[in-house]
Amino acid sequence: MSTSKTTPPTERDQGAGFRWASLSPFGKPLHRDLTFQVLVGMIVGVLLGIVVPAVGVNLNLVSTLFIHLIQMIVGLVVFCTVTLGIAKVRDFGKVGKIAIKAILYFEIITTFALAIGLIMINILQPGVGMHINPADLDGADQVTAAKPMTFSSFIIGLVPTSAVGAFAEGNVLQILVFSALFGCGVAAVGAKADPLVRGIDSVQRSLFWVIGRIMRLAPLAACAAIAYSVSSYGLDSLLSLGALVLEFFLTVIVFFLIIFWPVSRIAGISLWKMMRYFREELLLVIGTSSSESVFPQLTVKLTRLGIKEEVVGLVLPTSYSFNHDGTCLYWAATSVFLAQATDTHLGLGGQLSLMFVLLLTSKGGAGVSGSAIPMLALTLAATGTIPVASVALILGVHKILSGAFVFTNIAGNCLATIFVAKTEKAIDWTIMRRELDSGGIRQPTR
Questions:
Q1: Dihedrals φ, ψ of 270, to 5°?
Q2: Residues 383-407 pLDDT 10s
Q3: H/E run at residue 378
Q4: Distance between CA atoms of 310 and 80, rounded to whole angstroms?
Q5: Residue 445 clears pLDDT 50, i.e. is over it
């Protein structure tokens, strides 16, 4: 069976003749279902980390290699997606309207995320009573704050000194700016640029083919990442900070219920059906803690949902740079947790100042993979109240927390794209409902 042009390799029909008993709950043969494979990989990773930790410690190479393979082409995917999105619209007023709506949405939701993160950590107070002296923490020398960022340096940093340099450094925000300008240039040329548009479209399809092959390593990468975490820090060290982990998981659940669920209702979709549709991507980011690992798949699947390409091409890449709902929850929770653990007084005024700084630093870390810890250290240094060295306290559980906040980021990015698309009336609702109801399953013939 041939694959439609918007179907990624991971979602292809598995052919006819399979018995229903051999299918996973997601409609594919169990051994070929990516969701099942990643889940098994994570379970095996935990067992490896416990039983043979010496092997688990050395498996970080595998997960790192997988993420590097994705990072190798994600910049090009962003470039193609944004350029095609703008070039096909050829209406600068419409492009600007979509961008403004998206950024306004991002700012509102991330502000709610920071507020909820601060409220929950103050209610549950998992760090109270720990009485930690930051100077005594092992790993304090591993904590390095990011460089302080002012508003002017942030604005200047939006524009790369070299377009090639932006791709070489993997700076998604700079790639986004360059792609938007290039897309506007292509749109301005008009019909004469049609061969170029077709060429970029062909490049994008080729990149999706490459992504499909790389994704075959996803279960192995998830296994390696989990095994490394358990082997490196041990279950005891992870359990010792279990209160913070449980608090953060509860905070994520609360955020989904009081923010994402109402937004999904306004957008006219079921939050559960949306998450089921993107189940493979959401499960993968839990294992790898890398949002970049699923960007190409999200681009394709959002388009398959019936959302116009120009909206997906503009909103999704922008959300990767500005819409860090889960990361904001993480920064708010861990900052106050460290204040509680080190007996640092942080009153209402101090927490409001912290929230303001986080609104700025969350944009400073945009598009920088693995920036959560450095940007947290920068935030603490900027406030000047919580000891920066105390960040070492959460290094042991950062991997667990990062899986949760990257999961939230990806769900938030998908929901943001659908929400903006609805406001633009850029959704084919017949396709949307059919796809969400099916869960993205291609039913095999009996």
A1: -90, 125
A2: 667 887 777 777 767 777 888 898 9
A3: helix 372-383
A4: 11
A5: no
Domain boundary assignment for the chain:
30-438
pLDDT band at residue 109 under the 50/70/90 scheme: very high
Provide DSSP, 272-339: HHHHHHTHHHHHHHHHH--GGGGHHHHHHHHHHTTB-HHHHHHHHHHHHHH--HHHHHHHHHHHHHHH
Q: Which amino acid is located at 298 in the chain?
A: L
Q: Coil, helix or strand for 348?
A: helix
Place of tokens 């790369």: 160
Q: Are 394 and 244 in contact (CB under 8 A)?
A: yes
Alpha carbon distances (Å) from 342 to 129, 133, 338: 9, 6, 6
How far apart are the C-alpha atoms of 215 and 436, rounded to whole Å?
A: 23
Q: Are 284 and 38 in contact (CB under 8 A)?
A: yes
Rounded mean pLDDT of 417-426? Answer: 93
Contact between residue 218 and residue 8 where contact means Cβ atoms under 8 Å apart: no
Q: Is 422 helix (H, G, I), strand (E, B) or coil?
A: helix
On whether the CB atoms of residues 315 and 421 are closer than 8 A, the answer is: yes
The predicted structure's pLDDT at residue 294: 84
Distance from C-alpha of 373 to C-alpha of 146, rounded to nearest angstrom:
9
At 347-380, the pLDDT tens digits run 777 788 778 777 766 654 544 455 677 677 767 7
- The reported pLDDT for the residue numbered 10 is 43
Output DSSP code: residue 10: G
Q: Among the residues of 387-439, which ranges form H helices? A: 398-423, 429-438
| Contact criterion met (CB below 8 Å) for 375 and 340 | no
> Which residues are CB-neighbours of 284 under 8 A, at least 6 positions away?
34, 38, 218, 222, 293, 294
Q: What is the pTM of this model?
A: 0.69
The listed CATH number (1.10.3860.10, 1.10.340.30, 3.40.50.720, 3.40.50.700) that belongs to domain 30-438: 1.10.3860.10
